Each structure stands twice: as structure tokens, then as C-alpha cells.
Amino acid sequence: MSDHSAGGAGNEIKLLLAWALVGVPLVWGIYHTILNALKLFS
């Protein structure tokens, strides 16, 4: 069966955690890439 509850706060928390698991490493990688690129041009 599917878990489609109307207005479930648990689903919002799961979605937020899923985005955090993707977003934090992505931002970390972009940040370090920019720092390394700035070293090349300085």
C-alpha cells in the first residue's frame, strides 16, 4: 500500500532530511571548488 496521508508532518520532515542529505554535500563541494578555482587565478 502507499503512504499518502493528507497533511502529514512526518512526510515534510522526511523530505527536509532528504534534501539536507543531498544539499549539504553539494554546497560543500561547490564551496571548495570555488576556493580552488580562486587559487588558480590569484
Features:
42 residues, mainly alpha, 1 helix, 79% helix
Summarize this entry quickly:
The protein is an all-alpha fold. It has 1 helix and no strands.
Report on the structure:
There is one protein chain. The chain has one helix and no strands. It has one helix at about 10-40. The radius of gyration is 18 Å and the shape is rod-shaped.
Sequence-ordered SSE layout with sheet pairings:
Layout: H1 9-41
Q: How many angstroms separate the termini?
A: 58 Å
Give the tally of β-strands: 0
Query: Gyration radius, to the nearest Å?
Result: 18 Å
Which consecutive residue ranges, at least 5 long each, have pLDDT under 50?
none
Mean of residue pLDDT values: 88
Structural class, by secondary structure, is mainly alpha
What about the largest sheet? none
Strand content: under 5%
Global outline: rod-shaped
Task: Figure out the total of helices.
Answer: 1
User: How do the SSEs run, as a string of H and E?
Assistant: H
Percent of residues in helices: over 70%
